[in-house]
Design brief:
single chain, 242 residues, alpha/beta, five-stranded mixed barrel, 7 helices, 14 strands, 32% helix
């Protein structure tokens, strides 16, 4: 069986998963250092590839080439948009990832890549612009698993941005434009890379660390968010092999 690739931005987002591995091994000389090991009967490769789209795409490409995973799980924390129904410590799973910055800011307003006429990826007669789909079957199974454990898990569109929204007004703008529930800085890049490599199933699960409002980090709880996401992903992986 090919491994499951776990990708995060920073080490704290995968530290519980790494600690749960049997016989972990890490090649310190790799361009993107990843820890390999077994979680039960499942082989995992865990990597904190860095913050932002450039790091995320580079790490995903390097690790897909090395390990040929059968599934990618993108894990981390995210900021919940107003109206999403999410609170700090809740969990969210992506139905689609949206490149929130790619486009043109024109006098009449923002235009996405489809309006501009430039796809981010095309293959045969299909083209993908700002919206990248994620694994539907795996996301539905995650929803069922959360329900069976009494966990709050919201499924919806995620927006990937280069500049995080630090005002409530900006959060409302992006939430309404994309009909989205939360934002992050890596997910769309990983989803697009998985799509390029033959459509590797990609599941994205994030713990909510903060609400997108006028920036006040005293109201954030990153530790709670990353712990919730990792503990749930461990359950997802245990269920995956059944």
């Amino acid at each position: 069986m090919r491994p499951i690739l776990i990708l995060s931005a920073v080490p704290c987002e995968i530290e519980l998963l790494v600690a749960a591995l049997d016989e972990p091994y890490c090649d310190p000389n790799a361009v993107f250092s990843a820890t390999e090991g077994n979680l039960g009967a499942t082989r995992l490769v865990c990597c904190a590839g860095g913050i932002g789209k450039a790091n995320a795409a580079s790490a995903a490409t390097s690790l897909i080439e090395r390990y040929h995973p059968e599934l990618i799980i993108n894990i981390g924390c995210g900021g919940a948009y107003p109206g999403s129904g999410l609170s700090v410590g809740d969990l969210a799973v992506a139905s689609d990832e949206i490149f929130g910055d790619e486009g043109v800011l024109a006098p009449a307003g923002w235009m996405d890549m489809k309006q501009v006429g430039l796809p981010l990826f095309s293959e045969a007669e299909r083209a993908w612009y700002n919206s990248i789909p994620l694994a539907r079957h795996e996301a539905q199974k995650a929803m069922q698993l959360a329900d069976s454990h009494g966990l709050q898990l919201v499924r919806g569109r995620f927006v990937t941005v280069s500049s995080c929204s630090g005002t409530k007004a900006r959060g409302l703008e992006l939430a309404r434009r994309h009909q989205a529930v939360c934002e992050n800085m890596e997910g769309a890049a990983i989803a697009l890379t998985a799509l390029r490599y033959g459509g590797i199933p990609c599941l994205e699960i994030r713990g909510i660390s903060n609400l997108v409002e006028d920036r006040d980090m005293s109201r954030w709880d990153i530790g709670r968010a990353v712990e919730a996401a990792q503990r749930f992903v461990i359950k997802v992986i245990e269920e995956y092999t059944k």
